[in-house]
Amino acid sequence: MWLLPRTHFPSSSSSSSSGSLCRVLAILSFLLFAVALLATPAAASRGDRLPEFKDCVQGCKEGNCLSEKTPLPLHLRLLLWNCPSECDYACQRSVTASRVGSGQSIEQFHGKWPFKRLWGVQEPFSVLFSILNGHVHYAGLKSLKRELPRSYPLYPYYRLFSIFGMFCWLWSTVFHTRDFVFTERMDYFAAGANVLYGLYLAPIRIFRLYRPTYARILRIWGMVCIAAYAVHLFFLLGVRWDYTYNMTANVVVGSITNILWTYWSIRHYTRLKSFWAAWPGLIVMWLIMAMSLELLDFPPVAGALDAHSLWHAATILPGMWWYRYVATLPLPTALSYVLHFALLSILPSPCPGCHVHYVRPC
Ligand SMILES: [Zn+2]
């Protein structure tokens, strides 16, 4: 008997600038929402095909999801967990625990490692780091408003950089909280838009395309970037959803941006001999090293910390550094992240198996 007694379940009865910012985020969300609705489901993994996993899911659904449904706690229902998805999660944990216990490898399920969720959040570390990344852009936007005069020609471009950053990390947070086809597509589209905006911005700053004499070139450059993004979306949604292509496109665009900033840093450092001139180059070097974490694909340490979440962790400090470069991100914000990490390391881990509602922990 592997179903938990029914008594273990809870009862089923149980400002103007910020306005414009919201409008921009809402428009971006709406546009990507519309295209993400065209998405198709993700591919299966080896774990999904394991007989013990299939048997577990079938037995769990028959025992909990048919005529007399076992109620889920409110916080899980709020995060859109339902009986079949709860069975799927519980069986992933159960099968993984028994495989680890018998010295077998940990397998992926539905294209992802079997993470231990926290309060219904599927990938707690990726969510935490996404929120911190988003906060860096939010704090950065505030520092831009405080430090830069509105007449500064790059101000609107930097401001939009912050908005794209917040938009990107908002959807990263949503996706890592609950992985649906829709949230995955939104995460990918928002990340793609963010990376492409980085490429759009680099020559504007480096070659001073914001000057009135370059107005025509700037318009053409803007149209090229918008067209590239439209083609990117069309390919992913209209031709083929291809993870490798998506990753390659982002890496290529990001690499061109990195080369531009490295060129800028070398040129300015050689001329000025001032350390700050090397900052953009050092920031992109950090990002390149952090990106290599994405190439590592190991099972999550303690069921929670994987290479992808470490990649998200690794982008927090370069983000703060960037805003310190273009404006002055105040130090207390930096210190608050150190405190976050210190707290995280002393927090007790959840009790073994207490995250599982339908299947007894092994
Ligand atoms: Zn992510």
Automatic annotation (TrEMBL):
It is a multi-pass membrane protein. It comes from Tuber aestivum (summer truffle). GO terms for biological process: GPI anchor biosynthetic process. The keyword Ribonucleoprotein does not apply. This is Post-GPI attachment to proteins factor 3. Keywords: Endoplasmic reticulum, GPI-anchor biosynthesis, Membrane, Signal, Transmembrane, Transmembrane helix. Involved in the lipid remodeling steps of GPI-anchor maturation. Residues 1-44 form the signal peptide. One of its GO terms (cellular component) is endoplasmic reticulum membrane. The chain crosses the membrane at residues 125-144, 156-176, 188-206, 218-237, 243-264, 276-296, 322-347. The keyword Transport does not apply. It is found in: Endomembrane system; Endoplasmic reticulum membrane. GO terms for molecular function: hydrolase activity, acting on ester bonds. Belongs to the PGAP3 family.
